[in-house]
Design goal:
295 residues; Rossmann fold; 9 strands; globular
Length: 295
């Protein structure tokens, strides 16, 4: 069975993606800072695999903080005990200020926390997980559980598609620097880093969080260039109705925002299509049709 680590999996997008993977036969290592909600999520994830007729998914739930190096090591060790690691999802996040405030008022300790959780911790986890990811036979093992999908990715057609280069290093990442070689698709594992439109747009009060996500984007792009044997995706999931957004902007009515589960089909599309490394958006319309917008 393929194995995934998903951080921040007790609720929101992390939990929704974990449930979808469990239903496809994946074994999971999941974490969150709160033990109670994580334990409840783990029960749901095991049932998701069983409900799909595959038997209960193996789920290791480890409460802890991704900013803690010992906790990160425990996550990777648990994946190794399940047989390896095929997908690492860096989903856990921190705003830096709750509610969000203008940069003039942003607490510096809060910014340090945002950078630690959104940038330093993902890299630390990637460093720990890299040996297992490089040994992964990700694509062959995954195709046993996923229906074949066309490797087609559709441009979003919005203004940002022209203003922002989705992955200026894609050619190097895919061809490993060989100008005459065909596109290189590694058979190792995949890394999915959850980004935000605040990484590329200047929204008032989102400066600290946006700066952290922008750093995560650049870190992901460099990683993709350095590790052509892996797939590295950094994805803006779009607006969602989550506890994180409620904490960021508590006075905003989020009832009309889509639930995190609506984004999951777009993320699965990356897996099914063996998408090349790059920055992707997963707009709600694209998620509903199974299409992924790349920008």
């Amino acid at each position: 069975m393929p194995v995934a680590i998903i951080t921040g999996a007790s609720k929101g997008l992390g939990r929704a993606l974990a449930a979808a993977l469990a239903g496809r036969g994946w074994d999971l290592v999941v974490d969150a800072r709160s033990a109670g909600p994580l334990k409840e999520a783990a029960r749901e994830l095991r049932a998701a695999g069983q409900g799909a007729g595959r038997g209960a998914a193996r789920v290791v739930a480890l409460p802890g903080d991704v900013a803690d190096a010992g906790h990160r090591a425990a996550l990777v060790a648990a994946a190794g005990e399940l047989g390896g690691l095929d997908l690492l999802v860096n989903n856990a996040s921190a705003l830096g200020a709750e509610p969000l405030v203008r940069l003039a008022d942003h607490p510096l300790d809060g910014l340090r926390t945002a950078l630690e959780v959104n940038v330093v911790a993902p890299l630390g986890l990637i460093q720990q997980a890299l040996p297992l990811l490089l040994m992964s036979s990700y694509l062959p093992s995954y195709e046993e559980f996923a229906a074949p999908a066309e490797r087609t990715f559709h441009d979003s057609g919005d203004d940002n598609g022209e203003a922002y280069d989705s992955h200026p290093y894609t050619e190097n990442a895919r061809n490993a620097g060989l100008s005459v070689s065909p596109p290189y698709m590694g058979t190792g594992g995949a890394i999915l880093n959850i980004s935000s439109d605040a990484a590329v747009e200047a929204y008032p009060t989102w400066g600290g969080y946006g700066a952290a996500k922008a750093a995560l984007d650049q870190q992901s792009a460099v990683l993709a260039a350095e590790e052509p044997g892996l797939r590295v995706w950094w994805v803006d999931p779009g607006d969602m109705r989550t506890d994180l957004y409620a904490a960021a902007v508590p006075d905003d009515d989020a009832s009309g925002r889509p639930l995190p589960g609506t984004v999951v089909p777009a993320l699965l599309r990356l897996l099914d299509g063996a998408a090349p490394s790059g920055r992707y958006t997963a707009a709600s319309a694209a998620a509903a049709t199974g299409e992924v917008s790349v920008r």
